[in-house]
Structure formats: structure tokens, C-alpha cells
Write a structure and sequence with these properties.
With 214 residues, this protein is of the alpha/beta class. It has one domain: Alpha-Beta Barrel (TIM Barrel). Helices cover 33% and strands 19% of the residues. An eight-stranded parallel beta sheet has the order 1-8-7-6-5-4-3-2. Strand 4, helix 4 and strand 5 form a beta-alpha-beta unit. Helix 2 runs parallel beside helix 3 (75-81). The longest helix is centred in the last third of the chain and has 15 residues, at 151-165.
Amino acid sequence: MKLIAPSLLSADFLHLENDIEMVNRSEADWFHCDVMDGRFVPNISFGIPVIQAIKKKVQKPLDVHLMIVEPDKYFEAFAQAGADIITFHFEACAHIHRAVQKIKTLGLKAGVVLNPHTPVAVLEDILGDLDLVLLMSVNPGFGGQKFIERTYEKIRKLRLMMDEQNASALIEVDGGVNTQNAKALFEAGADVLVAGNAVFKSENPMETIHQLKQ
Ligand code: DX5
Ligand code: ZN
């Protein structure tokens, strides 16, 4: 699969509606929303009321990436706010299996996120339960950072592990994705590419989304 999920973290917060409408009209597939708590990551972004507002305008699934400690405390609130997909960090949760089941019970798709230093092997015994695995290709917390090249190897390893287990989770890559590396990332086995700066800071965001999909 080749899906593009523009990250609203890089959108114009003063004119969020314009950017949302652009994404609605574009070839993008999901809206990626980065929730940061200033504890799990050294930055604070936006939370539940903003997601609720965004939900009123989006015509595509809302992919909510939780960069927060104790994520399982908030699954219900984000589900009510309109999330279609919730991903949370492996490094922020002691009970991954329970947390994944909780998201699924709420009727949403569930994914686990791995920081750049966390090996894909930690997912071996949970892979079959996941709808999505999100590989961070930068250290989480900020948009506009440089892509970590090691990510290609992680995608290939994860793809191999999934093939061995006949697992069907989507592989999503987040951080430093642009029109230069998108093709190679899809070829390495990624299914979903998140792009913040590459889309919203470009001259023609709709055209950039089109190019990312090629
Ligand atoms: C970073 C976030 C990303 C971020 C990506 O912690 O998870 O989703 O918005 O931004 P770019 O594409 O600019 O690296
Ligand atoms: Zn993200």
C-alpha cells in the first residue's frame, strides 16, 4: 500500500481550516495528528479540544500519534474526540497488549510506535495483534528534522518479521520524509508515509502530496 499522511503539526494553526481543506482535496489518505505532552517528548503540541475541532472538517481518517506518558489513560477521550487510528509509544507503556486491546475495543485501529533506538524485534510477540507499526525516523518531538538513514534497515527487518508471521499490520514511517526519499521508503516496504514540513512548507502542497505518492 502507498498512503500519505500529512502531519498537521506543520500546518498553519491560525488558518487550520484552509490547510485541512487542501488535504481533503489532495491525494493524501489520512490526517496525522501529533499529540505531545512535554514529558514523553521535550515539546507540547495540541490535545483533545483541537482534535475535536479538526474532526468536524476532515474527510479522511484521523491518525492520532500519542507522544505522551501513560497513553492508555487517554484512549477513550481521543476516541470520543474523533480518532480513527491511535498509535502510542512502546517506550511509554508497560502493558502493550492490554493497551492494544483497549483501543480495539473502542472500535479503532491500533498501532505501536518505536523510537529510532528501539529494535523492531521487541514487537515479535504482539505483531499479530497490531493494525499498524509506526517507525520513527527522527527523534519524536519536533517537525523539520533530518531523516535517520538507519530506518531503511528497520523497515526491511520488520517486513521480514511480518512475512514470517503472516502478519498484516501496515508499516508507517514518520519524520524527515520528503519527495527525495519517499520512493525508496515505499520500496523498502513502508505502507504509510507521514510528512509535515515537506508538505506544508512547500510552495505547492497539493503537488508535493502528489509527488510523494508516486
Ligand atoms: C515528530 C512527529 C512528526 C512530525 C514530522 O515527532 O511525530 O509527525 O510532524 O514532521 P516532518 O515531516 O517535518 O519531519
Ligand atoms: Zn507523528
